[in-house]
Amino acid sequence: MNNSCPILTQTQNCQGNGRPDKDYENWRWKPFQCDIPRFDPRKFLERMKGKTLAFIGDSVARNQMESMMCILWQVEEPKNQGTRNMQRYYFESTSLTIVRIWSSWLVKHNSEPFDFAPAGVEKLYLESPDEMLMEFLPTFDVVVLSSGHWFMKQSVYILNNEIVGGQLWRPDKSRHMKINSVEAFGISVETILTALVTHPNYTGLTILRSYSPDHYEGGGWNTGGSCTGKVKPLAVGELVENKYLASMYEQQVKGFNRAVKKAKNGSKIRLMDITEAFQYRHDGHPGPYRSTDPNKITKRGLDGRPPPQDCLHWCMPGPVDTWNEIVFEIIKREYEGDRIS
Known about the structure:
341 residues, alpha/beta, 7 helices, 11 strands, 25% helix, globular, TBL, transmembrane helix, membrane
């Protein structure tokens, strides 16, 4: 796949970037008491005939979209019909269109000044869905949503025309902050899903992929965290509790459940729960193998410090391909009544 998929982002091309081991490509998640069939690209193209599948969200959404595209590219090269605002690929054999819209938080945002928050700091309007997403929504048959990790970045939270919190931003500690980044994430999930399940011109299938775990150890993405040397999945019993991950997942599920109760347009909404299963896949990230630079540092220095690395996104091929196998199973069930184990 690495040399035959021109859409693949180089930073996720682990083999092309010199990663020496390959076992991470072969480990597969097996749910209890059932199997997930291998992704059959020809069957997928036929099943999705005439439909539009949209991946919407952050860079992990891009990761999943590229995984899907690389699998399908093996049987047909699509036509690129994209624009600056939206990637768009058309498969002529079955008139399937796959699109990707970048939406970091899935809600309305800008960097304009608001109340005591100055220009230049991103403002998130937590009760308003992303406007561009909503503009194109009626043209989509299946929507796969991904978000969460950008809530760690600097931003201001606005709800009911009031600043209610912020992340990495609090100029005046005397001002009471009503919500934190985890709670803001939960609100954003409810907002976008509610907008989809109540939209008068959308009757498609919405799949919310649950929060994708990262595996930084000894720090965060910007403070020296590492996954260097992880070449096998964790074994049962080796999983260490991650309270932040658990909180983000909990808020996401709560937002999903609140939105489900508001559904009224006949569209379908499903939660694709991958969080716990993929906590075991600390081996599936690019780690230090993020570029083709032959001089890149891939091991810890004499002082024990790890090299710069990516323990958030997923190697391709790799664990992320399983997400699209699950997507295919959900689509089969919803469009033809097939059951998922």
